[in-house]
Amino acid sequence: MRILLVYATTEGQTRKVARAAADRLASDGHSVEMIAAADVLTGDLPDFDAAVVAGSVHLGRFQKDLEAFARKAAPELNCCPTLFLSISLSAAGDDPDDWTGLQDILDRFVADTVFQPGRVSHVAGAFRFTEYDFFRSWAMRWIAAQKGVKVDPHTDLELTDWGALDTAVAEWASAAAAKV
Ligand SMILES: Cc1cc2nc3c(=O)[nH]c(=O)nc-3n(C[C@H](O)[C@H](O)[C@H](O)COP(=O)(O)O)c2cc1C
Q: In this predicted model, what pLDDT tens digit does every residue of 31-43 receive, in sequence order?
C-alpha cells in the first residue's frame, strides 16, 4: 500500500513514534510518506491507499496543525483505512478518569474535524525535560509526583511501549491491506 503518515509533535516524542511506525510499515513492504502536519497543510495531498495520523495531547487537545490537517483531509481520510496514534502520558497509566479524559479529547477531535479514524491506538509518551522551559519543567514534575512517577528533572523519561506500538501498527496494516 501507499501509506501517508502525518504527524504533529510539540516536544519530539510523536516524531519518534511516527518514525518507528513508518519503519515497521516500510519493512512490511509498504511505501510510506511521512510528513509533518504543518508541511502538508499548504500543498496538495499526495495519493494514498491508507493513512496513519499521529499527534500528542497537551492540556487536553491535539496540536492545532493536526486539527487543521484532519479537517482539510477528512473527505479523503474517511474513504480509506486509517490509524490514529494518540500519544499522551495518560496512556501510560491505568487511571479510569485519565482514560475517560482521553476518550473525551478524541471525541472532541473527531467532532471538530469530521475525521473518523478507522482504528485508534493510545500510545504512552515521554517526559522530555530537556525540551521544557522552567515553568513546564515544574508543572511536569508536579504531574509526575501526582502520578507516583519518579523523574529526574535533568533527564528525559520515555514511557512508550515500542513493542506494543509495533504490534498495533503491523496488525492495522495487515487488516488495511485486506480491504484496499
Ligand atoms: C505542557 C504539557 C501539557 C500536557 N498535557 C497533557 C494532557 O492533558 N494529558 C496527557 O495525557 N498528557 C499530557 N501531556 C503529556 C504529553 O502528551 C507527552 O509528554 C507526549 O509524549 C508529548 O508528545 P510530543 O513530544 O510529541 O509533543 C502534556 C505535556 C506537556 C509538556
A: 999 999 999 988 8
Whether the CB of 56 sits within 6 Å of ligand 1: yes
Q: What is the pLDDT of residues 68-126, one digit of tens each?
A: 999 999 999 999 999 999 999 999 999 999 999 999 999 999 999 999 999 999 999 99
What is the rounded radius of gyration, in angstroms, for the C-alpha atoms of the chain?
16
Taking the CA of residue 96 as centre, how many other CA atoms within 13 Å lie in the half-sphere pointing to its CB? 0
Atom of ligand 1 nearest to the CA of 91: 11
Which domains, ranges and CATH numbers included, belong to the chain? Answer: 2-125+160-179 (3.40.50.360), 128-159 (no CATH)
Ligand 1 centre and the CA of 156: distance in Å? 13
